[in-house]
Amino acid sequence: MGQEFKNHDMTMMFTIHDALRRSTEQIARITARTDEDPRQVLRTAVGWELFKKYLTIHHTAEDVTVWPVMRRALADKPDELELLEAMEGEHAVIDPLLADIDAALADRDAGLERLGGLTDALHTMLHNHLDHEEGEALKLMDITMSKEEWGVFAREGSTRVGDDARRYLPWLLDGMPPAKLTGFVANLPDALRTPYETEWRPAYEALDIWAPKADSAAR
Ligand SMILES: [Fe+2]
């Protein structure tokens, strides 16, 4: 991104954003398919469930531990407050799209036409939001949040992932360019790297998260 951050390590933020971007690309590819009903694929593929869960965790962690903290610190700075409002507003538009898409997936009559419009909106709005956050808000987070506040945000994300690390970590790294992946994995603490390499990644690959399953076998 070519940005310099003075105070906080933004590696995880960029890593999560890129994983969310890759999922929306995959969702766009699925909804463009004509050989299979995209509703059947998304309704039953594990990937849609994982994407919803991890997008929600990431947004909620920011909604709870980033924007309110920054709003207090920047209370007398109207331009900065406007940016925070934009961030919260973008979350508030994107998050309900997940339930709207689920409604379209369940709708056997009009669902197919609705689905394409909704997944296009999700793709565009999420990409715009992530670009906006990376282009403007991360700089402001870096200079506004204290080390302790940044730690609270990082822990909020991991607490919400909780025992799901065995799915989350391979999902996060799925599709990461190989050169980057090697460095990322080498930097993981042993307690994550070893299970990731020996159990979590093979189990995740076996799940084939974007493969449609029979409806009855779903979840
Ligand atoms: Fe973010």
Task: Quote the beta fraction.
Answer: under 5%
Any idea what the CATH architecture of the domain at 11-163 is? Up-down Bundle
Q: Which percent bin holds the helix content?
A: over 70%
Largest sheet: none
- Low-confidence segments, given as residue ranges, are none
Looking at how many chains there are and whether they match, the oligomeric state comes to single chain
Count every beta strand, where a strand is a DSSP E run of 2 or more residues. Answer: 0
Count of individual helical segments:
10
CATH top level assignment of the domain at 11-163: Mainly Alpha
What name goes with the CATH superfamily of the domain at 11-163?
nmb1532 protein domain like
Summarize model confidence as the mean pLDDT: 94
Q: What characteristic shape results from the CA principal axes? A: globular
**Which H/E pattern describes the elements?**
HHHHHHHHHH
Taking Cα atoms only, what radius of gyration do you get, to the nearest Å?
18 Å
Bound molecules: fe (ii) ion
